[in-house]
Write a structure and sequence with these properties.
- The protein is an alpha/beta fold.
- It has a single domain, classed as Zn peptidases (Aminopeptidase, 3-Layer(aba) Sandwich).
- Helix content is 30%, strand content 17%.
- The strands form 2 sheets. Strands 1-2-4-3-5-9-6-7 form an 8-stranded mixed β-sheet, sandwiched between helices.
- Helix 6 links the parallel strand 6 and strand 7 (240-242).
- The model is unreliable at 2-27 (pLDDT under 50).
- Residues 1-22 form the signal peptide.
- Keywords: Signal.
- This is M20/M25/M40 family metallo-hydrolase.
- Residues 101-320 form the Peptidase M28 domain.
């Protein structure tokens, strides 16, 4: 929680000559497509059995993610000796489950002590033995696509000598059980919340409509300046960033951005504000979700499989957003905006 006119991203057009990239050739872009295909096939394989939190398969994915972080060059967060942030999750029956966020860090090589958070959830809903036929919820789009996009995003940023922010890459567990992983991190942060400038989560970014390639949308577009900031940067790369798909669906509150954006608001207060009953005062960090899903029926269905994923479009989005973030001025401030539902403030 759209045939591409240009396969991948023409990085050279968007990167200043003062920034050194290891290689921005067609070969590198093809490599990202090949890697994304390989990663998607792994995450959405039947062998992963739907990546249910607490399962052996989910634990295997944790180790796989650590390996990918190391290969890309992501470090452990300063002060931590592991990529794993372990916590106890609870399923709907109240059973306790061993869970873990997988957190990586990319230093900006600059004077800033601020952070930009990007991520996705790697868990899904497992297997339903009551179904006839296919019983495995592979979760290719939800949200293996976001995991793959986060890895490509990080891999692209790793090629720059300097960034405007330090980068936190969060792979969240137990999202399907109520955003438990991101909630745990927000309550037990590995970096000061006051130093997190902003960020976004990749949510269902793998299955665009055929007439909507190079087109994504962002939740909470009226809530902060991150939307116009990224929209302007993406437009330079022939990507269109639209407002939220359907404001009435409350998608801003249903992805792993929400625990960061709504640090101290209870669900009843949020519900009243969202319904326009009473404007709510909320303390939080401008954090949003980016998606390309537009209502296709694979959401939480067994046929959400790797064969549905438009890998070139996914890779292009991840690369484009990496260039957009790198292009921001080091003094960029993402501000909450006045809106009809919430009166936001920062921690």
């Amino acid at each position: 929680m759209n045939t591409i006119t240009k396969i991948g991203l023409t990085l050279g057009l968007a990167i200043s000559s003062s920034v050194s990239l290891a290689d921005n050739s067609e070969t590198t872009k093809s490599s990202n497509i090949e890697l994304a295909t390989e990663w998607m096939d792994y995450l959405a394989s039947d062998e992963r059995k739907g990546r249910l939190t607490g399962s052996d398969e989910n634990s295997e994915v944790q180790n796989w993610l650590i390996n990918k972080f190391k290969t890309i060059g992501l470090e452990t967060v300063p002060g931590q000796d592991s990529y794993l942030q372990k916590f106890t999750a609870y399923n709907r029956k109240g059973d306790t489950l061993q869970a873990a966020n997988v957190i990586g860090y990319l230093p900006c090589n600059c004077d800033s002590d601020r952070y930009f958070v990007v991520g996705a959830h790697y868990d899904h809903v497992g297997v339903n033995p009551k179904l006839e036929g296919d019983q495995i919820f592979n979760g290719a789009d939800d949200d293996a696509s976001g995991v793959v996009a986060s890895l490509i995003f990080a891999k692209t940023l790793k090629q720059y000598d300097k960034l405007p922010f330090n980068i936190i890459v969060g792979m969240w567990d137990a999202e399907e059980m109520g955003l438990q992983g991101s909630k745990y991190f927000a309550a037990n942060p590995w970096v000061p919340l006051t130093q997190i400038e902003s960020g976004f989560m990749f949510e269902l970014v793998g299955v665009p409509l055929k007439d909507s390639l190079n087109n994504a949308w962002m939740t909470g577009d009226k809530y902060s300046t991150l939307y116009p900031t990224l929209k302007a940067e993406l437009a330079k790369q022939d990507w269109q960033l639209d407002p939220v798909l359907d404001p009435s669906m409350g998608l801003f509150f249903r992805s792993d951005n929400a625990p960061f954006a709504l640090l101290d608001a209870d669900s009843a207060t949020i519900q009243k504000a969202f319904q326009g009953q009473k404007k709510a005062k909320v303390n939080g960090i401008p954090m949003h979700a980016i998606s390309v899903w537009r209502g296709q029926d694979h959401y939480h269905r067994p046929h959400d499989e790797a064969s549905l994923i438009h890998i070139p479009n996914l890779v292009s989005l991840a690369e484009s957003l990496a260039v957009a973030v790198e292009s921001l001025s080091p003094d960029t401030k993402i501000q909450w905006l006045d809106n009809e539902q919430f009166e936001f403030s920062r921690p």
